[in-house]
Design goal:
The complex is a heterodimer of chains A (about 110) and B (about 120). Chain A has one domain: Immunoglobulin-like. Helices cover about 0% and strands about 55% of the residues of chain A. Chain A has no helices and eleven strands. In chain A, the strands form two sheets. In chain A, strands 2, 4, 5, 9, 10 and 11 form a six-stranded mixed sheet that branches. Chain A has a five-stranded antiparallel sheet with strand order 1-3-8-7-6, with no helix packed on it. Chain A is globular. Chain B has one domain: Immunoglobulin-like. In chain B, the strands form two sheets. In chain B, strands 2, 4, 5, 6, 9, 10 and 11 form a seven-stranded mixed sheet that branches.
Amino acid sequence: DQQVKQNSPSLSVQEGRISILNCDYTNSMFDYFLWYKKYPAEGPTFLISISSIKDKNEDGRFTVFLNKSAKHLSLHIVPSQPGDSAVYFCAASAQIQGAQKLVFGQGTRLTINP
Amino acid sequence: EAGVTQFPSHSVIEKGQTVTLRCDPISGHDNLYWYRRVMGKEIKFLLHFVKESKQDESGMPNNRFLAERTGGTYSTLKVQPAELEDSGVYFCASSPDTGAKNIQYFGAGTRLSVL
């Protein structure tokens, strides 16, 4: 069973525009969510996170929104830059249960076109 | 500060052989995790060490996989005997025990190819 889903395998955006990546989850025990960025032949790099007590977290060009009632989160990148082209993974964990393992989505390949 | 390092970066073995992957976490990180990504699918959890103890090994696929973290520093993941379906990229991650412990930092991975 896929507890974290990223339904868009790929996304193409024009440079300078906004990129919106989406993620849905099913486990209501998840209380911490993270976005990782991955380049080819490298490991995932932490980008931004959000706790379930918040509905928004912003860091520079990156903003994560959490809608707990819909069990949905999204990552906004604005403005998008060519260096943002990578695979983005959404991940979730149930910290309140003491479990720290991350459950990942399948990833979305973002391509920024010049 | 050095990040999480994994060795080797790539391993090609034949079915039935043994392979040992190594992970050196960020210095001072008590938490060490192993994950695997198969055939470009999602990254899946294998197990979690806190220092030298196995905290959670619920993701280990079967008893052909053996993970150790003697002394609470580096960790090894042995696959014996390797099967075709074990091919994939094995990632190691670490996180500190306090502070931003929710954030896991990943190594570059070991790509395992079983022929």
